Request: fold
Amino acid sequence: MSIVRFFAPYKKFGIFLFVLSVIIITLIYNALKPKRVLRIYEPEQVNVELVDSTMQEIRKYHKIADFKLVNQHGDTITEQHYKDKIYVADFFFTTCQTICPKMTQNMGVLQQKLKNEQQVLLLSHTVMPEVDSVPQLKKYAVKKGVDKTKWNLVTGTKKELYDLARKSYLVAKAAPFSKYDLIHTENFVLVDQKRRIRGYYDGTDTKAMEQLLADIDLLLEKE
Reply:
């Protein structure tokens, strides 16, 4: 009797054992594989140029401060509007011709991708309140297809906006010797349900937006 004939009756059993082994190994791998967790950003961990000097030594418990701003429809927007929500924030101005158009375009992409996700909102702050009045913001919002239920474009006093940029979101450089006083960056900031910063993303980069969406999904899973 040949070896092939001897093992023939065991062929199906061998295949079964092989498939079972693959399943078991896969289950063990998934159980042992560390799950990806988003870091919680503290001021001490962020580029010092983007952080107000009063915040640079903070190592824990940093949260986005309370705020009271006005959106493109003249409605008062406070931190309560974003309570228990995940949101993406950035800083821009409507007459910007450099990075802002691409940032706004990518915010629009996020708006579309997240249109059915009620737990996620968007928030764009102007850094030029002297130019970006409520009518100007509304005109810009209409032009860019902003959905008012998903995305607020907000203005307020220069002090509050600049404090939010450098003391809360940690995304702007001080420019005391220029006419603007502050230079905003291309950063999008991912804020979780507890008002903690969970990620920074290049708002002009398409791949960064893919990562941002993946990280939002991760936060949603943790709810």
Observations:
- The chain has six helices and nine strands.
